[in-house]
Design brief:
Elements: E1 3-7, H1 13-27, H2 37-51, E2 55-62, E3 67-74, E4 77-83, H3 92-106, E5 111-117, H4 121-129, E6 133-143, E7 146-156
Antiparallel strand pairs: 1-2, 2-3, 3-4, 5-7, 6-7
Length: about 160
Amino acid sequence: MTFRIRPGTAADVDPVGELHTLIRNETYKDIISGYRAESTTAFWRQRFPVEAGTHRLLIAHADDGSLLGFVYVGEGVLQAIHVHPDWHGRGVGQALIQAGRKTLAELGFRFASLWVIAGNERACRFYERDGWRLSGLVRDGEMGGVSWPQLEYVREL
């Protein structure tokens, strides 16, 4: 099965929220428990229209239209990238991050950053393979009511 990447629309917000929840519950099961799709979907429903002028949602979908992954970029930051676990290692993430970088460049940015939760080694390896480098900055982030350190990665576009 092949996939395509297209701009996201308001109709994608609920599936994006559901996939975002699935990934967080799987990836961070040792940090959070019971991350709920209702709250994540509500977050995306609120965020998407407010940020539409400065941010872009890109959707990876299968030929049958099913959501395989997404990337969300804006303000010089790769805000989120998630791929359905069934599609890991099949090029979806690589295509999404390339599309995200291209979109940030089209928005006028020469450099970009992203934040990753410390300890997410799979994500760190993925970003490093794509040319991202640690900046040395660390911040406290919150996910599911739990505070967790986040590492900043940067990259020229």
